[in-house]
């Protein structure tokens, strides 16, 4: 039973380019969360999605950032026109829709974005 | 506002016991989580408390007092591999996790 998968693991972009980060939740999980971790800081919530639905995007910057979780395929976090301050580790977590472990979020290995 | 406080760093000796404290003030409470994170890796789930009291799982235990907004993670029989960051997180009333900045634990031989 594969865990949460994220790709790429490392991504280098020049200022002004676009970054696309992918997350495939655990099998049977339909809730996806994205978090950002800046160097030497804690994890910060960005967005919570279910299939074809954004539940909570209160942690997303208003500009340049968007997220989706289509009916088929992985969840995508998209950052347009990246700036140096976007350099961080981006973690995806998933949780099941129901059952006794509904409260647990399982994290993927993260994508480390470096903006040069 | 949302506020979760935990010490930045702690040190301990192999074989000892260490307690990592966490205090929180959040809008809504649907449980408190502890995660372990080794440098450059993903957080891994350690424990979940939603009711007051102590939850024990092997060498690790977690305690919660909702009235005091307080939790601790207790690690017994410390091993070198326990050197990591320990993250306290509260699940708020919209199901997202609010994380503290983490406590970096160093275990010395």
Give the rounded overall mean pLDDT of chain A: 91
Helix/strand-derived class of chain A? mainly beta
- N-to-C span of chain B: 41 Å
Question: The biggest beta sheet of chain B, please?
Answer: 6 strands, mixed
Order of helices and strands of chain A: EEEEEEEEEEE
Distinct helical segment count of chain B:
0
Main sheet properties of chain A: 7 strands, mixed
Pattern of helices and strands of chain B: EEEEEEEEEEE
Low-confidence segments of chain B: none
On the 0 to 100 scale, the average pLDDT of chain B is 93
From the alpha carbons, calculate the radius of gyration of chain B and give it in angstroms. Answer: 13 Å
> Helicity level of chain B, as a percent range?
under 10%
The shape of chain A, in one word, is globular
Beta-strand portion of chain A reads: over 45%
Radius of gyration of chain A: 14 Å
Distance between the termini of chain A: 37 Å
Quaternary assembly? heterodimer
């Amino acid at each position: 039973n594969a865990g949460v998968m994220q790709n790429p693991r490392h991504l280098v972009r020049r200022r002004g380019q676009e970054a696309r980060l992918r997350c495939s939740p655990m099998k049977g999980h339909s809730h996806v969360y994205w978090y950002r971790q800046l160097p030497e800081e804690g994890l910060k919530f960005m967005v919570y999605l279910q299939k074809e639905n954004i539940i909570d995007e209160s942690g997303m910057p208003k500009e340049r950032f968007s997220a989706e979780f289509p009916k088929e395929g992985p969840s995508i976090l998209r950052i347009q026109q990246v700036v140096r301050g976007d350099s961080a580790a981006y973690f995806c977590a998933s949780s099941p829709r129901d059952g006794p472990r509904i409260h647990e979020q399982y994290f993927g290995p993260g994508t480390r974005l470096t903006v040069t | 506002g949302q506020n979760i406080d935990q010490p930045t760093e702690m040190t301990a000796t192999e074989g000892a016991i260490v307690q990592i404290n966490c205090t929180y003030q959040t809008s809504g409470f649907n449980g408190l989580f502890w995660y372990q994170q080794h440098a450059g890796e993903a957080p891994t789930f350690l424990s979940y408390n939603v009711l007051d009291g102590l939850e024990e799982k092997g060498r690790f235990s977690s305690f919660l007092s909702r009235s005091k907004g307080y939790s601790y993670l207790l690690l017994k029989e410390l091993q070198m591999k326990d050197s990591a960051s320990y993250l306290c997180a509260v699940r708020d009333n919209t199901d997202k996790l609010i994380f503290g900045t983490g406590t970096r634990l160093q275990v010395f031989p």
